[in-house]
Amino acid sequence: MLDQQLADLRKTYAQRTLTEADVAPDAVLQFRRWLDEALAAQVEEPTAMTVATVDDQGQPSARVVLLKGLPEDEGFLFYTNYDSRKGRELTAHPLAALTFFWPGLERQVRVEGRVEPAPAGMSDAYFQSRPRSSQIGAWASPQSRPIGSREELEKEEQEVETRFAGFDPLPRPPHWGGFIVRPHRIEFWQGRPSRLHDRILYERAGEDWKLSRLAP
């Protein structure tokens, strides 16, 4: 019964259209337009994006993080623990895929590109702008590593608090910082009736972008 209920779930998308004439010639500029519209529409978590990485055996993994900037309109910036699973995988295999989904606008954006560490100064500035509790958490958590208990994590948090008493802000941990995804492929998806969705693809062509339409 549950499987049938899941199979029967569907929604008709009919809010908007997306044509080649609608979009900007630059893919990141087009993304900014859509992000501005998502912010204006007050969709939930408009900067949330799925980041997909791959390990040495080709096993993909994905998780949701928050977009924290579009530096120079040439990349998608987020921050993480460099020793986490995604941090280690991105260091070893500096390619990633991102996905944004704004159901309230019936829109999706898919991004593929090369990854590079953010400049240290950029990571320092962002880290020190975070709430103190978040700064302490970055020091205390061995992200993605097994831990014995919640109590163990909270004890480490208290030890970090004691260690950095009087520091405001805290220094950035050496294992924490930003990654920038430099896109070579960005696809914009607009839901349409009868599952005949609009899909506009941008692909890097030197300094420019080449546009094409994909079948839904």
Model description:
This protein has 216 residues and is of the alpha+beta class. It has a single domain, classed as Electron Transport, Fmn-binding Protein, Chain A (Pnp Oxidase, Chain A). The chain contains six helices and eight strands. The chain has helices at 2-8, 27-40, 85-92, 120-129, 132-140, 150-163, and strands at residues 48-54, 60-66, 76-81, 95-102, 107-117, 176-190, 198-205, 208-213. Strands 1, 2, 3, 4, 5, 6, 7 and 8 form an eight-stranded antiparallel β-sheet that branches. The chain is globular, with a radius of gyration of 20 Å. The mean pLDDT is 94.
Helix and strand topology:
Blueprint: H1 2-8, H2 27-40, E1 48-54, E2 60-66, E3 76-81, H3 85-92, E4 95-102, E5 107-117, H4 120-129, H5 132-140, H6 150-163, E6 176-190, E7 198-205, E8 208-213
